[in-house]
Amino acid sequence: MLRLVAYDISKDRLGDKAYKKGWVYTRYADDITFSSDKNFSPKQMDKIRGLIRQAGFAVNEKKVHLYHKDDPPEVTGLVLLDPRPDVSPAFLKHLKADLKALKLLSEQRMLRRGIVMALPLNKLRQSIRGQINFVGMIRGWEDELYRRLMQKLQRLSAVVSY
Fold first, then answer.
1. Residues 102 and 57 grouped into a single domain
2. pLDDT tens, 80-104?
3. Are the C-beta atoms of 121 and 102 separated by less than 8 Å?
4. What's the Cα-to-Cα distance from 97 to each of 7, 18, 63, 149, rounded to whole Å?
5. Pairing relation of β-strands 31-35 and 74-75?
6. Could you tell me the maximum CA-CA distance found in the chain, to the nearest angstrom?
7. Containing domain of residue 117, as a range?
8. Do residues 16 and 67 share a domain?
9. Cα dihedral 126/129/134/140 (nearest 10)
10. Helices (H), 106-143
11. 31 and 67: one domain?
12. Which of 20, 29, 37, 156 sits in a 20 to 30 Å window from 10, CA-based?
């Protein structure tokens, strides 16, 4: 079966418009980032919001973050450090909270009482595995934090069969 996907070329124009303003535009899925060597003024921020809306996107104000030009930039869970990127502290905090939730939801008393269904629990486990693999991809597969997180997930998975 052949599936054609219509790609809206106007979304690519964000990069052209950013370039003309001296900004750098990057995008990963629906996460859009505009960067500059200088801090953005409120007027420039309004212009960026307008460009995003014109391209057919909605601006999620909860995800709008401004960084000072001297702060290391952060994009989609990565802190862009020199000489190499690292996983952001916020990403790790959320990952550890997810592991804690999985541990609580996997307790035998929760499972015996039927409070948690196997399918959502398995989806949570898979999501956590993906997040941990992201840590391994960024930090390296031999990284101590990656190995500890993966061992913790494996211990939790061994306790409960999904």
1. no
2. 887 889 999 999 999 999 999 999 8
3. yes
4. 37, 36, 19, 12
5. unpaired
6. 61
7. 86-159
8. yes
9. -160
10. 108-112, 118-139
11. yes
12. 37
In tens, the pLDDT along 111-122 reads 777 777 778 888
Strand order in the sheet with 78-79: 74-75, 78-79, 86-87
In this structure, is residue 35 part of a structural domain? yes
Is the separation of the CB atoms in 125 and 133 below 8 Å? no
Residue 4 belongs to some domain of the structure: no
Q: Is residue 79 part of a domain?
A: no
pTM exceeds 0.85:
no
Q: Does residue 1 sit within a domain? A: no
7: region left, alpha or beta (phi > 0 left; psi from -120 to 50 alpha): beta
Residue appearing with tokens 């418009």: 17
Q: Which residue has the tokens 């859009």?
A: 32
Q: Would you state the pLDDT for residue 124?
A: 93
Among 43, 71, 99, residue at a domain's last position: 71
As a whole number of angstroms, the distance between CA 158 and CA 150 comes to 12
Judgement on whether residues 90 and 152 belong to the same structural domain of the protein: yes
Query: Within 10 Å of residue 99's Cβ, how many Cβ atoms?
Result: 19
Distance CA 155, CA 129 (A): 12
